[in-house]
Every structure is written in C-alpha cells, then in structure tokens.
Amino acid sequence: MGKRKGLAIQLAVIFGILFLAILYFVLGACYRDGFGPGTFINGVYCTGKSVEQVNEELKERYGKDSFLIQDAEGHSYTIAFSSVGIEIDYTSQLNAMRLRQNPYLWIINLFDFRYRSMAPEIQPDAGLLVKELASCGLYADNQKSETVEILREEGYVLQDGMQDVLNEEAVLQTVKEALETGETQIDVSSCYRDLPYTEEMLETLELWKKVDAFQTCGIVYDMGDGRVELTPDIVADWILLKENGEFFLDENGELVLREEGIREFLDALCEEYDTYGKPHVFQATRGETVTIEGGTYGCKIDKEAEFDYLKQAFLAKAEEVHIPAYTREAYVRGKDDIGGTYVEVDMTQQKLYYYENGELFLETDVVTGNTGRRLGTPEGVNYIYSIQRNRTLRGPGYAAFVKYWMPVKGNIGLHDASWRKEFGGEIYKTNGSHGCVNVPGDVMAQLYERLEVGVPVVMFY
Q1: How many structural domains compose the chain?
Q2: Whole-prediction pTM
Q3: 3-state secondary structure of 221
C-alpha cells in the first residue's frame, strides 16, 4: 500500500509539472503576436495588444499637430504637421521592441514591469518642408541686407548686414534632424553665420567707430526736477556734414564739431526749462487753476556760459552731472519752479496763504491795493528780495512806519499795517493800500520768523 501511495504522488507531481509547462507555453503563444505582460509605453498599457493597436493608442495620446521653430531673437513660428506631410507613427519602433521580447520568457516581465518612453517617427516631405520654412516668416524676419551702412535714426546707428546672417541650409538640416528625433520645439539660434567684409565695408566700419565715439557723451544736465542726458540722438546733430550729407573729416581724418548744433540744443533746453518771463500755471487754494502773467520770479539759463562749458566739456569727453549756470535762478529749479514753499495772495478773496513744504502753514485776511484809485496790487509771480525790520515806507503824500517789510517787486511788498483794525472783505476797493499787501501784525511776525529771501510770492485776482 505504501508503495502504491508513493507512486500516485509521484505521478501527480509529474502531471502537475506537465500541466504547468503546457500552460506556460500556451500563455507564451498568446504573447507571440503582442506585447508581454507588464509592458507600458508612454503610459499606455500594452500587454497582449498588437503593434497596430498600441500604435493607434499612442497616436491618440500624442496630441500634437504642429511643431514650433524659435530663432535667435526669440520669435516663434508654428508649422502644421499636415502642411509638410507629417503623419505620426510608432510602427517601426514598436515592431523592434516587440521582437526584442521573447514571448516564452514572459514570466520575467511579471517581476520586472517594463515602463518605456518612445518618440514617434516624424518624416516630413523634404519639398514641402522647404516651402513652409520659406513662407512661415522665419527667413523674412531674419533677412539681412548684406551691406554695411551708417544710418541716422535716434542718433547714428550701424546697420551691419554681414553678421548673424541666417543660414537657410543649416536651418533645414537642423529642423529635419530635430523632427526625426521627435522634437517639436526647435531652436535654430545656432544656424547663423558671419559673411566676409569687402574693403569698402571695412572702411565704413572704421568710420563707424569714430561716429559712435563722437556721439557717446557722458554729460547729464541736472535741471532740478528732472535730468537731461546728452543721448546720441542729441549729439548726432553736433557732427558737421557735407552738403551731400556725408561726414566731414578734417585733415587728420577726424570728425568735426558743429558748434551751431550745441546752440540749437541749448535753445531747446531754455525753451523747455526757462520759466522767467513766461506765464505760470498755478493751483489756487480757492480751487481754481489760474494762469498768471508777469512778475520777477523764475529761472533763466545763461546760454553763453553754457555754450562755453558744453563745448569744452564735450571735447574733453567729460562724464559728469552738470547744473547749468543761470542769469536768474528761482527758489526752486525746474519746470514747476514755485515748488512747495510759497506765499499765495488771492486778491479777489483778499486772502494770504503761506505753504511750507506743500503744507498750509497759515492763512489770513489782508488788504491789497486800492482799486478805486487805480492803485491795485499788480498780478505776477514775484519773490521776496529783502527782509527788513522797522522801516518807514514813503511815497507821494504818505509815510508809514512798519515793523516788518518784505519787498517783492520794486516798492510793492508785504508788511504789517498797525493803522488798520479790519482786514479782508472789500476794503481794498475803496480804502486799499498804495499797492502793497497789508497783513495783520501778528501774522507778519510769524512770516518774518519763517520766510527767507528768494521764496516765491504768487499774486493774482
């Protein structure tokens, strides 16, 4: 009995092994026309699927229908696959991969899942690709004149059409090779070359060095509320030219300074920044914007002094920030020369306001010139040109002692008026001053402590 039982076990084991062997080879036969177990390509599960089935799934997952070319300037050009005859296909690579898988060694894959990435084979039609590259804008945007010229734009510039010329043959080869490896974002910045210069071009390059050095200036004008840089656009006008527009060179072959160009620049600078003798646009406390003509206040650039400075400094290649010389200089330099510290006299409202650093420090009623006797205080933007104590003001038929005297234009100024008990209203129309601005004594005492020579006084109706 023991022998029979042992024989039965042996037969069962043999039949079990045979069964498993047959099952193993049957399963191997099933993978003969497809991919083995545990195979993933680009995230697609491929086990048991044919090359054709996997190819279709990969094409659907690919999701691209065009490629992009980028040049050295960062411009991008998109070309559709269909326009160059490209059809996405993985067949040959899938066949090669399937052939490398032995279907009868499928059990190995159970312990070694195969995750693979694969780029499609992209084969453009050569003729269509040449045509699309020519029409997509890449060559047009990178077209060079293949000449060397000095042109006047914002200053003089060199147009060198011999450097960084796009090589169309190199572009075509680069794009083809990139597509064949599955790249769809293609950089052609390596496809540029430099062309050889002629003797005439080399002479132009030497002249350009002189022009570029001439129009490069390191002088910056400090105008108070802004700066004016002497850019090539400005300095280019200082180069002397022949009647035909060519550069005039002296006996040493050097460029010549056109002095009239400096004067033209200074004329424009003065026109923009001189404020003396020009109307002042002022935001009145009463809420209106008023335009005030006349007055003694403002900046005026000394053009002759600046011409001498600028000619010498430019030829010496100075690099500096320069404050111009003035024949008249305001309390604040710049286009808004009234600034934030000033006295405002609103003669219609009969009010005086004193602003300090942009903040209202005090306000008071005043009495201005007697308009009934044609002695009205004149409008204008003036400035305090003296500050005095204990003066007797004299004029035709009067002498008046004042503790505080601040003249702003001739014999017109601000002062206290101890003889007045009331200020403001319409007193000025019948009992106004001889032209000065009468201010309460306590207010004049405060102004005396805070004002200084040069502070603007804005006077208007």
Answers
A1: 2
A2: 0.72
A3: strand
